[in-house]
Amino acid sequence: MSHSLTDLPDDPPPAADSPTAIAQWVADVLRERIVKGTYAPGSRLVERRISAELELSRTPVREALKLLHQDGLIEISRNRGAQVLRCTAEDALRLFDVIAALESLAAERLAAVITPAQLDDLEDMHARMLTYHKVGSHADYFDTNSEIHEFIVESCGNPIVQDARGRLMARARQGRFMAIHSPERLAQSVQEHEALMQALRARDAGAAALVWRQHLLHTGDSLAAMLDSD
Amino acid sequence: MSHSLTDLPDDPPPAADSPTAIAQWVADVLRERIVKGTYAPGSRLVERRISAELELSRTPVREALKLLHQDGLIEISRNRGAQVLRCTAEDALRLFDVIAALESLAAERLAAVITPAQLDDLEDMHARMLTYHKVGSHADYFDTNSEIHEFIVESCGNPIVQDARGRLMARARQGRFMAIHSPERLAQSVQEHEALMQALRARDAGAAALVWRQHLLHTGDSLAAMLDSD
DNA sequence: TCAAGGGATATGGCATCCCATTTTGCCCAG
DNA sequence: CTGGGCAAAATGGGATGCCATATCCCTTGA
User: Fold this and answer.
1) Which nucleotide lies closest to B24 by the C1' atom and the CA atom?
2) pTM of this structure
3) Is B108:A97 a contact under the CB 8 Å cutoff?
4) Residue A84, φ and ψ in degrees, nearest 5
5) Which tens digits make up the pLDDT trace of B57-101?
6) CATH architecture designation of domain B21-84
7) I need a surface site. Which of A41, A73, B3, B169 has the fewest CB within 10 A?
8) Which chain A residues contact residue B97 at CB under 8 A?
9) What's the CATH code, domain B89-228?
């Protein structure tokens, strides 16, 4: 087992102030561990073991596992426990084919309704991202990058897009942090972000949709290539 | 209460041959009732009541309610039970904005890889649909229509599209069967189906994507108008 | 008559027990 | 040494009990 009882829940048990909060919290803990690789793909998540470690009963753990299953992160088989699914290169391509469609829709809709304030926020994030890129501060670059993507999906006016995209991204994040691409891909990515900003400034919904879809398809290709090279 | 113990589960309890089958079955029963309107929007689904009626314990019912919640069909609040959410016109627009993006993607991908056999299947369904339309057999028309949409999403080569689309459609179906549109809309819809067939015959992915997206956006508009007129 | 307070009831969340099935490991026969 | 079979342990699923809290109704006082 890869973690002792000492690195326990990090957070204290989150006092059940809201309904189903415990199961949600358990799901978050497990999701984090899956994403960070603490639970390797293929490893088995046993209800009784987790409930003992987190010092609660099996019921919320069961619910959490069900949640993770619906998110596509694990497979649950009877008497064999939950197993972390591996995200293959092919999975990444399929995932980003859909994510591209969703985020493209978000960009398209946002371009049509974007407010000056929202544009300012985006300009700010965009500028920060460019700086981090120049400086070579990868972690900050990726954070800001994610921030921009999240912002677009949040601001597009359709929460359903955000919800669907969130679930898909959880699966994609599994394993690597979608980190470090090649310098060329990085440069291309920055360029695509710049193109989106131009489309948004011009309120050109069609262009925004096109640019952003290509950006995400490229991201998918890049991630798939990375997963393949393992 | 709108149903007695005599119109029980319709199906016999589904023998737990596969794992989690019971919860899944309960979810199916409840979903059907929500879609058919047996449970009106706003009505409360009480764990204990349902478990008593279906003659099983609260556990699978509870899981089923969680599933329905993740599908966006119900809201669960502590001590207030699960309540069926109402699908408003605005919801329909948002839903179909996303569904349009997904099915458009499916059509685009399918056009690129469609086999002669698949095209034959589609031609067959399409012809049947046209016949039903001419004859005015609405139920058959809608069935075949759904069949075509399902087929496209299934055959596009990306199961993630199918999954995401399925969840969204469950919410859209809530209430009316998405039934009866105006004659003009019906004619337009048929025309759009015909346009898709042409694009698929030509293996023109771009045209297929465009046509199909418009078709679904129109469907969303139509449904929203219907919901609004209530 | 109406409003406010209190208690009974309803309800979902968590813990725990039991069961069916699968997995695992061991022992013995060949 | 190997393979098969059997028993014990492991494991998830379902059932049930208890608890905290929200809801609802009835009572009571102004």
Assistant:
1) D13
2) 0.89
3) no
4) -70, 125
5) 999 999 999 889 988 899 988 888 889 998 889 999 999 999 999
6) Orthogonal Bundle (1.10)
7) B3
8) 105, 109, 158, 160-161
9) 1.20.120.530
